[in-house]
Design goal:
By secondary structure, the protein is of the alpha/beta class. Helix content is about 45%, strand content about 15%. It contains six helices and six strands; from the N terminus they run E-E-H-E-H-E-H-E-H-H-H-E. Helix 3 links the parallel strand 4 and strand 5. Helix 2 packs parallel to helix 3, helix 3 packs across helix 6 and helix 5 runs antiparallel to helix 6. The longest helix is centred in the N-terminal third of the chain and has 18 residues. The relative contact order is 0.16.
Length: about 170
């Protein structure tokens, strides 16, 4: 089930804000779920920040992409945790592409977190990111490759946090 704290509501049960979540976390589970992302999520929740984090499963019967995309659209901001194997996941790349579209179309605030990654490697789609996109290209995801490359480059130019060589 996706983790989220219930949206804040007024006494009339209507949302105070036009969004359901203050933060949407975009991350590669294998890299950061049991460490950095768990710590970040717990800290946000402790501060009362309504946060969406994709857990092991989502609502039964829902298409994963439509539920995740809906959560992105209903978020005030997105934290994109760019880790070593982020680009290996087509789902992470699809979420990122949707996040960057919502940034332009809906004013979604987007903040990258470079988790043990050099921002220039993400920006230029170099290193593990370049290798991952080549692998996706060989797997017949040609149409998506350019969108993913653009989204990675765009997010890497945004102001965020560079956590290279730091402890969790």
């Amino acid at each position: 089930m996706a983790s989220a704290i219930l949206p804040r509501t007024s006494s009339s049960s209507t949302p105070i804000h036009p969004w359901d979540y203050e933060v949407f976390l975009n991350f590669r589970g294998e890299d950061t779920r049991k460490g950095f992302t768990d710590h970040l999520y717990a800290a946000l929740v402790r501060k009362g920040i309504v946060t969406f984090r994709d857990d092991e499963g989502l609502s039964r019967g829902e298409k994963i992409s439509s539920e995740l995309f809906r959560a992105i659209e209903k978020s005030r901001c997105a934290l994109v945790i760019l880790s070593e194997n982020f680009a290996d996941s087509k789902w992470c790349l699809e979420e990122l592409t949707k996040i960057m579209e919502c940034r332009i179309e809906m004013g979604l605030l987007v903040f990258p977190v470079f988790y043990h990654m050099d921002p220039s490697d993400v920006r230029s789609v170099w290193g593990s990111y370049g290798k991952a996109l080549l692998k996706h290209q060989r797997s017949r995801y040609d149409r998506q490759i350019e969108r993913w490359r653009e989204a990675l480059s765009e997010v890497a130019y945004l102001s965020g946090w560079d956590l290279r060589d730091r402890n969790e």
